[in-house]
Amino acid sequence: MAQVSLWSYVSRIGPEKFENMYQEFPIEVRSLMADFLENQPWEYVTGSDSFCLELANTLIQRLLEELKKISRNSGVAVHLIHQYVQRISKQDSVQTVLQIKCLLENEKAVVLKQVPRLSVSLNQRKEEMQFNVQIMKLKHKLQQVTMVQQQLRDAKKNMGFHNQMHNVASLHMQWEVLVKEYFQILESAQTQALKRISIWKRQQQLAGNGAPFDENLIPLQERMETIFAMFQDIDRALKDFSLLGEEVPSGLPENMNSSLRTLITSSLLVDKQPPQVLKTQSKFQASVNFLLGSRLLSSSPKMPVVRATIITEKKAQELYQTPIGESWNEGAGDIENGKSVLEIAPNSKTCGAVFKNLLLKKIKRCERKGSESVTEEKCAVLFIAEFNLNSINTTFHIQALSLPVVVIVHGNQDNNAKATILWDNAFSEVERRPFFVEEKVPWSKMCHTLNMKFVSEVGTKQELQREHFMFLAQKIFNDNSLNDDQDRMVSWSQFNKEPLRERNFTFWQWFDGVVDLTKKCLKDYWSDRLIIGFISKQYVHTLLSTQPDGTFLLRFSDSEIGGITIAHILKREDNSAQIQNIQPFTAKDLNILSLGDRVRDLKQLKYLYSNKCKDDVFGRHYSKKTSKTPDGYTPTLITLKVAGGDTTNPVNPLISNEPTWPVNGVGAIGSISPPPPPPPRPLQPPIFHHVEGHPTPPYSTPDFVPMLPYPEGCDPGLQWNGPIFIPPVQIMPPQPFHSQEPFPNMVLNPNDINMMDELQTIEDALGEDFSSSHVLAPLSIVHDTDTNWME
């Protein structure tokens, strides 16, 4: 991950903020050496002990080498560089280091006041430097241990001389102090490395909700290998000390072996997680990485086998307290292809095992808590392996636990399972007992999570805004007086157990429907800021009531999961105004006719709120009309009208006034005249094939005005004798039911049977879902009473 440059922010802030900071260090030199200066551990020179003096001398030597390097290519700054080199050559190294340290700390203080969010990046760099300094301290301390051991060896050779016995005892005590200090530093470095692994795991979990994540494990592998090398160095020192005839302090080898075991057993990570919503009888993949594998197993005659098994939350808690033993075999389900051999990559020197064809055949459900459903039950995939380390003749059992997974057996459980995973990923702690997570969280954290999920899932840079969060807060808390700044707690039940007011779905189910719709059909519109989306119907009325005729906006439907509706203001000739909400469009609708084309077709829509000509902002989303298809046919189009049309100049919504529409293989529909309004039939809908997601015309609901797709080409001159049927597809069955002849055409007789029921029977017989088919052309249907083809 690229590191942030402190100087890049310093150079953007007004120079008056940094007055008198560059008297000891020329600002021109600071600019030329920005990256070098910010990546050196100046702040760890804190005293005058031997290590700090050695570190200061090392840093000044690096500084002089860097100055010489940049002086060759710096042009006008050469004179300043030479002056500075002469100055620091004459002063104490520690003094120069402290000057640079003070300069960087002052710069950082000014920048963080202006850009507080940089603290995370700067702290990460500080942590990396701290670890590197600890390794430098270990190497320095090891040199001292080796020196004392050499002095002890020399003293033992000269035992005949006066006072050598006293000298040996003194050196022995000095050695013990140095080794104790070495182990304290080593333990601190190991703790820091293991903490970085925990942070990496947490970042990996947040990535499941869409957070950015650097999955590169090489830096962590290098840390673990460095610490392992430090253990090897001190182990050799202990053996050399024993060879001198000296007794190693009791408990020291045991403590070292315990720390080494912790290091090794913590080195197996799941670098590619299994799906967190895991469906039985579905294949999936995963992989593990053994960070110390290339160090420990490079000379092994037989590489270890890693086994994958699924375990319950209860079993995960038991393993958290007591690691697995040699004969552990207590899975909660059957996983096929659950074995893979660790391999060392020759180029990267990484060691891992890949599981390409895992298959969970079945799951043993455990006893659930209270009202907990199966989609709230968490499991995990456990990866285990064992190997023998010949150098210390010890067998190690290593294990890695995946992120929590929810096992489902049917696709309709997917939505609720995703809610469980989202909550766990978002609100669990870095270190926790599996798989504990709070039941209530601050609303501010929930807003961050919803925004992260929305942006990553949709694939947009356009984030949710404060007004959106205000609407979402009012929705989840069922309180229209709320605003998103209130410090309020939101519960898991409010998120995905309790249905929203006057609805039969939860907040998450509604929000996930919005995300899915936007990802599939509305990404570009959202990214172009054409959709307000998260806004209540009541507030829409407030916004539009003062706008010109034809002003509209788009919002996500409150009443339908995964729907978007158009609200617009309609002003009549008497200057009275009405806000109309067009019946919501779902993904199925928008796959048939895009949102841009729908907005284009509705002539009563003129301005996108506020005061933007619709053609200017939606124009690039309109479909382009073509004169011929690639195969030479004249293309057909689907257009849209509001049922009832313009209330100031009503038209019949069932009939199009467009020119004749040719029908492939059937011919063209003749001319028809607009029919008289049919008599009210409250119990029988008009004879139109009802496409799922579309209203049945021409009736409207109290909330919405229904929409009608209609074909181009219907001639108003055609004589009308009854209702007209304009289905969305040509009905072409794969083969006839009772003859080898083509499927007979059927002419609709308005006095005959209910064609809605007949078409449903056709759907059932053919196994065809007409609502998902392409709209090709209107179809003339002849009912052949002599052929009982529906038997």
Radius of gyration: 37 Å
CA-to-CA gap between the ends?
67 Å
Q: Looking at this structure, what is the CATH superfamily of the domain at 267-416?
A: STAT transcription factor, DNA-binding domain
Strand coverage percent: 5-15%
CATH topology name of the domain at 267-416, in short, is Immunoglobulin-like
Which secondary-structure class do the elements indicate?
alpha+beta
The low-pLDDT segments are 647-702, 708-791
**CATH domain class of the domain at 267-416:** Mainly Beta
Q: Note the main sheet.
A: 5 strands, antiparallel
Number of H/I helices:
22
CATH architecture of the domain at 267-416: Sandwich
What is the number of E strands? 22
Q: What share of the residues lie within helices?
A: 25-40%
How would you describe the shape?
globular
Mean pLDDT equals: 82
